[in-house]
Amino acid sequence: MTLQTVLLVAAALFAVGLYGAISQQVVVMVMMGLELMLNAVILAAGAFWWFLSPTPDGQVLLLVVITAMTVEMAMGFAVATLLHRSRQSDMTDMATDLSR
Amino acid sequence: MLDDVVFWVLAAVAVAAGIAVFRVDSMARATYALAVSFVAVGLALLLFDLPYLGVVVVLMMVMEMAIMAIYMIMFMGMNPALMPMSMVHGKRAALAVSSLTFGLLAAGALFVPWPSRRAAPAGDLVTSLGQAVMGSKMLVMMTVSAVLFATIVAALVLALPRGRYDRLGEDLQGDDLPGDDQEHRR
Asked: CA distances (Å), B3 to each of A45, B48, B52, in order?
């Protein structure tokens, strides 16, 4: 187990999550892709912390990443609920006007 | 040696479960697959002597996936485990972009000359994290607290069906305001 091998695994997880975030049509599935990408970030950050600088600062950074994941989930569910109520749909293709 | 074996098993499980999220034929199974991937990463964090964060990741993700499963049942109105689905768009482009991203990240991981470890880990890592959070990094955690509170408020505002002027129920929805009726004038 080296830094390189852990980063390779994290890269694979990130790429899988990116594929899901780009290709999926259901909002909840897109969120799953984003979660996988953040999962990879957590793994990579943990590896950086352990192999490069195992100080408390790195653990605090990991806590912030986990918080970002929580915020993403909460806001994603809230937007999904709003979309479902207003348009009776949970598909991203039905909400393309939100990006304008 | 044992750590290496455990790490590779966890890594294989994490990546395989991650791929399964977008390969299985129902959303419920996708949720379980994502939970397995997160649990594998949480356990891998334990190998890096990060017991607190590893346990937090596992507990948080198991709860999150349970909530996600409830959402799917809510939105789809049926048992998602029984409903095969494949709702994708731009599959080839997504595959190309993700493959390219993996290539770039893997090249970076393999060819960047990473420095060696600067310092030895502190004796009790959980205690040192607690002291950092309550000491030198308190500003970070206070900012995180404010962000989480703002998230709670914003999520509730978005998710609640009532708007700002619906706070008194049907009294404010019509043309007649409560102050205009006869009883109120008396």
From this structure: 18, 10, 19
**A97 Cα to chain B: minimum distance (Å):** 17
**Three-state secondary structure of B58-123:** HHHHHHHHHHHHHHHHHHHCCCHHHCCCCCECCHHHHHHHHHHHHHHHHHHHHHCCCCCCCCCCCC
Q: What is the pLDDT along chain B (186 residues), one digit of tens a residue?
A: 788 899 899 999 999 999 998 888 777 788 888 999 999 999 998 888 888 888 988 898 888 888 877 777 776 655 555 555 667 777 888 889 999 999 999 999 899 888 887 777 777 888 888 888 888 888 988 999 999 999 999 988 888 877 666 665 555 555 555 555 544 444
Residue B96 lies in a domain: no
- Contact call for B97 and A64, based on CB within 8 A: no
B159 and A25: CB-CB below 8 Å? no
Full residue range of the structural domain in which residue B28 is found: 1-84
**Structural domains in chain A, sorted by start:** 3-92 (1.10.287.3510)
A contacts of B101 (beta carbons < 8 Å): 11, 14-15, 18
Render pLDDT for B128-180 as a digit per residue (tens, 0 to 9). Answer: 888 888 888 889 889 999 999 999 999 888 888 776 666 655 555 555 555 55
Clarify whether residues B129 and B62 are in a common domain: no
Specify the number of domains making up chain B. Answer: 2
Whether residues B80 and B129 share a domain: the answer is no
B112 in a structural domain: no
